[in-house]
Design brief:
- The protein has three helices and 20 strands.
- It has 252 residues and is mostly beta strands.
- The protein has a six-stranded parallel sheet with strand order 1-4-7-10-13-16.
Amino acid sequence: VLTRPLEWMSDAKYKVKNLFELKAGRHVVFRGNRLENHWAGAQPGPSVVFTPKHGMRVTDVLFENNVIRNTGTGLNMYGYDYQYPYDTSLGPQLQGVTLRNNLFVFNRQTFGGNGRFILSGAGVTSVVIERNTVISTGTSAPNAAIYGYGIEGVQNWTITDNIIFHGTYGVFCDQAAYGNATLTAWFQNPIFSGNVLYDARASLYPAGNAYPTWLALSTEFVDAANGNYALRDGSVYQGRGANLTLLPGGGR
C-alpha cells in the first residue's frame, strides 16, 4: 500500500508530488499494489509518473492489477525530459509501457488536479492500455480521459477493452479536435476497440466501441453507488474493464 494521511491536505508544511515515479528503469513490474490519498500539491496531481530524465530511459514497464483510489489525476508520462523538450537526439526515452487490469477511481472535486486518466507528452512509443476500469466520481468533471501534448505525436498505441469516463474532451491533444481527429493526428491511428467510453458522443469516435451514459453503465456494476465497480453477472460489458478479483481487496 502506498498512501499518506488525508490530514496532510490541510497542512501547508507537507508538499506532495506523486505516489509512484520512474525516472529510469528497464523491465519494471509494478503489480498488485494499492495506491491512495493523493492530491494536487507540489505537482499538478498525477498519482503515477513515468518521466525519464535527460540521458536516461524507461523501457518495458508492466503496471498491472493495481488499485488507485482517492486521487484527482492518474498517469503522467512523456518521451523526453521536459527540461530538454526539443532534444530528440536520443530517440524516445519512454517506450514499452503496458497498463493492464487496473482500477482507477478519481474525485477531482476533493483531490484537485485535472481529472485526466492519462497525460502523455510527445514521443511515448509502444503503449498498451487494456482492460482497465477508470471511474470519475464527484461533481467536478474531468478535463479529458487521455490527453496528448508536445512537439510531436506518439506511435504504436493499443487501447482496448477498457471502461473509461469521457469527461469534457475525452481523447484530446493540443493539435486537433477531440475524438477521431486526435486519434488520427496525435496517436497516428492506434488500435482503439472494444472500449466502453461513457458519456461520449459515438459520432466522434471509431465504431467497435460502446458509448453508454453513466446512468446506463452504472447499472452494469455490482454496486456503483457504494464504490463496487465489478461487473454484475450477465452484464453486457463482460470482458471489458478490470477483473476485480485479481486486485488487492477485490478493488474495494
